[in-house]
Structure prediction request, 609 residues.
Amino acid sequence: MDMAIALILSQDGITNGAIYALLALALVLVFAVTRVIFIQQGEFVAYGALTLAMMQSGVLPATVWMLVVMGALVTVLDGGLALKAGQGRRAASVAGWNLGYPLALAAAVGGLAVNELPLAVQVLLTLAIVVPMGPMMYRLMYQPIASAPVLVLLIVSVALHIAMVGLGLLFFGAEGQRTPAFSEFSLELGPLMVSAQTLWVLMVSVLLIVALYQFFERTLYGKALRATAINRVGAQLMGISPTLAGKLTFFLAAFIGALSGVLIAPITTIYYDTGFLIGLKGFVAAIIGGLASYPLAAMGAIAVGLLESFASFWASAYKEVIVFTLIIPVLLWRSLCSHHVEEEE
Amino acid sequence: MTKQMQGGAAPSNAGAKNPVLEVKDLCVSYGKVEALTDASLTVGEGQIVTVIGPNGAGKTTMLSAIMGVLGSRGQVAFDGSVEGVPEVERMVARGMTLVPEKRELFGEMSVEDNLVLGAFQRYRMGKRDHAQTLEEVYALFPRLKERRDQHAGTMSGGERQMLAVGRALMAKPKLLMLDEPSLGLAPLIVREIFRIIGELRRRGVSILLVEQNARAALQVADYAYVLETGQIAMQGPAHELADDPRVIEAYLGLGGKHQAMLST
Prediction:
């Protein structure tokens, strides 16, 4: 291996690592606030990428119908409850957001020639379709069992993951998709060709991490999510409902997932089931952070990305094995020194 | 001590004008064990009402049920309208706050963040006056202002209790419920806490106070209930209960002098 190859591998590793970092942050956030292990994070990545790909090939993405169905179910449940309590205005607002919005979106995407729209609009429409599924999923699947043990929540996540992969095959077919790059130019740094997409990934990741940091440090809603993660009972006594916190968290996680998918769609070919492996690598990074520390998870994600890319050079058949084996020493080390964490109160 | 004080016509907190909180026949069970049986109590506007009783009598259970943290049967009327089964966020939104026995602070967040979160429900309802409320709370607890950037988890027991009370006040409550505010605190701090409880009443906050420090509680309160094994065993104006021989024997005792010193 010479310097040039090492640089190329590092570039790949850091690009993928940035995506894993985003996913790991979302996983840590979801677990801290709701105790849900968000296995289906990867499916949001795939849905984001493939919804965009379908729009670009001029087909109405079937995900929009999934959004309509989920919204209808939420409308029936929440609207019904509101009506029973005699809150007509609340019922109307529930129906507007969960039924009116998806239908309007379906009409817009179906009516426009989406493949001729500028890329930025296509990306926005993709996010508009995929992201609301996050909070709806929380409402339908997790809210009724919010206080169940972690293991039960995990099993629900596994079930949702399997369901979403199956639906993905139905929606997008078995063919892999790759979208064109956001922009064509590339940067020459000595022996290294840095593609525009790499810069996009790094730039958006850094921006998103900074924005999330600002959200959690500066806004009251961000602080409320942190408070829920630190002390659920205390947060509830302040009127921060676990439902609100859960929906907000799933919104952020779905946003991060779908945006990651849009970002990597020009770099990798995405199949309906690719998301799982990507999400799992984010999960390895999140575990390195103990499902609690954001900086450690982000650093772990870069390490996972680098390890993956160098492993694919030296032992490409074993690259996944090598990455996932990393979790064993991490878990050993974590379990050996975990009592430090338990001591606090 | 188990004899009921009242005969047929039950005395009630009749001095309470405009009751803020009226609890009727509240029952809570943990599985088959009934922890609270037919408890009724009233808190009037601007009143301090205390519930005293031994460990395990159901005091904390009662507060949790009124707040909606625990499921219950019975009737809770708050601020003029009846709640079937109270629900926490709704009760917070309507102006009830609970300072729980364990404080439940956000340990890894700063003192100021803890306080600001106390106003979350008001903020959500569009009342964004927390900057001003924060100054009022700082005026009441200058110590918290000094430590505004410190993590809540690193503070002493007394400071944490002040923070818990301050955080509850950020919601501008109509009714403040305090669960054992003096528990585990040094004597000087206990005195400070009770001084603040008195000060809050002067500002028109109604208070429901659960205490094991019966002497201090009876001294600051207007009306008192004695809770034993899940039932209201006695009730009456606080100064009368303080002189009742059965209360003196069971809760104030001869060795209670040190409590008296703490509370003045």
